[in-house]
Design brief:
Elements: H1 4-9, H2 15-25, H3 31-36, H4 44-58, H5 63-67, E1 69-72, E2 75-78, H6 91-101, E3 107-111, H7 117-125, E4 130-135, H8 138-151, E5 155-159, E6 172-177, H9 199-202, H10 210-222, E7 223-232, H11 238-247, E8 251-257, E9 263-269
Helix pairs in contact: 2-4, 6-7, 7-8, 10-11
The chain binds S-adenosylmethionine (SAM).
S-adenosylmethionine binds near residues 84, 111, 117, 161 and 180.
Length: about 270
């Protein structure tokens, strides 16, 4: 049987990743205990589970799928290959929404909710809001519902394409979305973590702007006067998305950059 130290040396993975995998197979132990007790022996089951996970990690599977969780806005969200792994850039969308809409009673919808990261975070950060979330993937929606329940977030989930499952007369203070925006033939689809993520979460199978076009065009009819549309997009799509928002008749169009200084979130308001 391997000790913790022997298990850690068994693979050329970064120590932090190895320890996270060990912690996952030894749920009673904290990260600090794994460091403090290198001589502790693993059970046969824990050893086999760890070695299996380490092999998968070496083959490129994302850490988040292997341990089944990723932190977003300070909370843990369960993830599986049915959902996109929430990205830190998307936290800018949360900040923009809370800043522009405020925390008083408001109605919001998250289009393409995936793990539910945006919808559940908004519901928890602004408990006076009424939050809905939509996804075309039933598997993603099940994961989002489980996350919202585990976190105690009040979110109403709707299955369908963008605006289609929403009530005809529903009007929103905020429409938020991080839609698929990668062009169908982008080389990034074959690299790194995204190789393991659901293709329908990543690409519109077109020029990268197809979903953003549909969401922008449908927003004015769904927004209250003074309501906001906020979307995440690719670093090179800022100008195109600003054009889509202006063409839809929205005003105060603005692109927010991420921490790397890249265009990431574009927001606009329906005239009051
Ligand atoms: C980039 S992921 C975003 C997931 C999550 N909101 C986040 O930021 O981590 C896009 C999501 O849109 C969903 N989606 C794709 N096409 C859709 C459509 N036509 N209508 C609704 N959701 C769609 C995918 O299933 C996926 O969950």
């Amino acid at each position: 049987m391997l000790t913790i130290e022997q298990a850690l040396r068994r693979h050329p993975l970064p120590r932090l990743e190895s320890r996270m995998l060990l912690q996952h197979v030894l749920p009673g132990l904290s990260h600090a205990q794994i460091i403090a007790y290198p001589e502790r022996e693993l059970s046969a089951e824990a050893e086999a589970a760890f070695l299996g996970l380490a092999e998968r990690r070496l083959a490129g599977e994302p850490m988040a799928y292997l341990i089944g969780v990723r932190e977003f806005y300070g909370r843990d969200f369960r993830v599986s290959p049915a959902v996109l792994i929430p990205r830190p850039e998307t936290e800018h969308l949360i900040d923009a929404a809370l800043q522009r809409v405020g925390r008083a009673a408001a109605r919001a919808v998250d289009l393409g909710t995936g793990s539910g990261a945006i919808a559940a975070t908004l519901a928890l950060e602004a408990p006076a809001w009424t939050v809905e979330a939509v996804d075309l993937s039933a598997d993603a929606l099940a994961m989002a519902e489980a996350n919202a329940a585990a976190l105690g977030a009040a979110v109403a989930f709707r299955h369908g394409s963008w605006y289609a499952p929403l009530a005809d007369d529903a009007r929103y203070d905020l429409i938020a979305s991080n839609p698929p925006y990668i062009q169908h033939d982008d080389a990034h689809l074959g690299q790194g973590d995204v190789r393991f993520e659901p293709r329908m979460a990543l690409t519109d199978e077109a020029d990268g702007l197809a979903c953003l076009r549909e969401i922008a065009a449908g927003a004015p009819a769904r927004l209250k006067a003074g309501g906001w549309l906020m979307v995440e997009h690719g670093y090179d799509q800022g100008a195109a998305v600003r054009e889509l928002f202006s063409a839809a008749g929205l005003s105060r169009v603005e692109t927010i950059r991420d921490l790397a200084g890249l265009d990431r979130i574009t927001i606009a308001q329906k005239e009051a």
